[in-house]
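Standup notes, protein team

Yesterday: finished cleaning the Heyndrickxia coagulans set.
Today: ABC transporter-like protein structure.
Blockers: none.

Input for ABC transporter-like protein:
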Amino acid sequence: MAVKEKLIEVKHLKQYFNVGKANEVRAVDDLTFDIYKGETLGLVGESGCGKSTTGRTIIRLYNATAGEVLYGGKNVHAKMSHKELKHFRRKMQMIFQDPYASLNPRLKVADVIAEGIDIHGLAKSNEERMHRVYELLETVGLSKEHANRYPHEFSGGQRQRIGIARALAVDPEFIIADEPISALDVSIQAQVVNLLKKLQKEHDLTYLFIAHDLSMVKYISDRIGVMYFGKLVELADADDLYNHPHHPYTQSLLSAIPLPDPDYERTRQRKIYDPSVHQYKEGEEVKMREVAPHHFVYCSERELEQYKKTYHG
Ligand SMILES: Nc1ncnc2c1ncn2[C@@H]1O[C@H](COP(=O)(O)OP(=O)(O)OP(=O)(O)O)[C@@H](O)[C@H]1O
């Protein structure tokens, strides 16, 4: 297997809100993981567990409370010049859940898409700018004729395509897709996921794909990280996570996915996660531990031994 190159290294990242106040929230609480060049890392967990905050802190929309994010070996959260920050901002783009809320309704589609081109001075003339816009519209499955319309004239799926074209306009390397399909009809979801997969191959992109359930994320992700209350509780190759989930929270998320097979559905048992099952003793160290190659679970030494025993069970 080829050695994978790390594009992003997240090290002991913390993002707390309202620090020191009664309503302090530890939205991201000591996360450590890598994102490899060209892969899709899925990040899943229930609403409020800190997925969006993780994404936003990685691209420095928030200043981290503690920890580091290395991008190509450089700390994104270090002090940097305006020019350097602008460079990072170009390399890392974001696609949002609600394409309508994230597209300025007063701008024509051409101007929405060209926003980054203008900010970064990527076109020398208006002709070049429009040529690029038309090209991007075609890349995402829309057409030249759409350039003069306004976002409200499009369906949800088409708006998401516009959001994708806008992100692609600055030729990024890394895209955070924050629940990009959650607001779309199920029939449209697969189309958008397929488009993202196609673009990844064509443009050599790396994705962090955020989702609150595990059904579609399996289809797009190479690896999946499961988050619970600001912490990563399991991280593994996508198939491995589905076939050998160890953390009881991962098992609970998986048990919530309905399948089209009626026999399976009749016997499917919803598992509810009860954090008290861990029964950690005073002083017991709980951290990410490797239960099998490339498969990490947040657990104690004692739990690791149990998990290893059941790995092939
Ligand atoms: N700017 C903020 N100020 C204070 N608290 C915040 C802020 N942003 C997020 N939070 C809190 O941090 C926690 C994590 O929120 P976050 O949006 O990252 O979760 P999420 O897993 O992405 O959820 P969702 O799927 O609902 O977007 C939540 O308790 C949220 O209320």
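Follow-up from PR in the comments: The pocket of adenosine-5'-triphosphate is lined by residues 17, 25, 27, 45, 47-53, 212 (CB under 6 Å).
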